[in-house]
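Please produce the structure of this protein holding magnesium ion.
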Amino acid sequence: MEKKRKISIIGSTGSIGTQALEVIEKLSDKFEIIALAGGNNIELLEHQAKKFKPEYICYNLPSSHAGEGGISTRGTSVRNSGEGYKILHGEEGLEQICSNKENDIILVACSGKIGLKPTLKAIENGIDIALANKETLVMAGDIVMKKARENGVNIIPVDSEHCAIHQCIKDIRQVDKLIITASGGPFLHKSIDEMQKATVKEALSHPRWHMGKKITVDSATLMNKGLEIIEAHHLFGMDYENIEVVIHPQSIVHSAIEYKDGSVIAQLGLPSMHIPIQYAITYPERFEGIKSKSFSFTDAARLDFEKPDFEKFPALNLAYFAGRTGGTATVCLNAANEEAVFAFLDGKITLCKIVDIVEKMLSDHKVIKNPSIDEIFEVDREIREKTKKLFA
Ligand code: MG
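Below is the modeled complex.
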């Protein structure tokens, strides 16, 4: 990159956002930050603003769960901070950031449905997206990918599995199968009984990755992998029949593809989110950046693979079912799951109940085939309301 790449980060105070800033700090001669948007960790956001000197910061990213993000306030006009940056607020602030064509790329690193509208706005403005937000594709993959094609916008996945596949693919038409790896989470070799009695603390102790609470619980139920199957379907236009999940506890092989001729290409590396984040924001170039040490096959020593246990982890089948059904089925899956995960985190239900609830909501849901964005948000709202009633 000859001139500095201009970037904004939505969700800069979260797990992906803070790691992205660590990458950018290492590559400070390659990036200029236009805007940082964060949730309720105002202190951290202001600290980031002082350090990285963006043009704008945006407070109060709305969050669907109290305790994980701030409260949405409708936008007020742009204010000067007195610190050299301008201040924006809430959804309106995000819209302003994503309409700013100064951006070369926007990293969408927030969690939850709040990621969807700004992503669409950025696509409409021809701005490339580094996408870490799962809901964007799970809720509206058809619309988002179609808009991206129409506007010539690159959607570069940040999720380690999709990033791996993105790195393996030369020509998607020659690919027969996507093979998504899963670490298996904390309950991989525990009994169903132990899983049923799991405490919040046990569910949150992921053996390989440190992530936000919602995604960590999703990794314990394997719903995270289910959502990733849906994402992969949209990102790479692959039929669900040709997307396979394999358990790989070491998290060294981040995913693989099989070509028509039987060649399998996998992407390997140490389990660090810095690598896929850096790949996504520097694509198509590569730099030394934050790499801390070289990968060693002999240190890794062994790589294990096993079939997922669909009975112990029914979330996988539910995700395949919702994906194949299409339309608003995946909106229902996502909304019911998120509310159930929050209920688990709040101590209202057990871990295994999460997937039971999702199954019930899915079987009751009347699918809308080709929903508009408004219909998607309406279904999302409806499902959340109905799901919450189950805990009342
Ligand atoms: Mg992942």
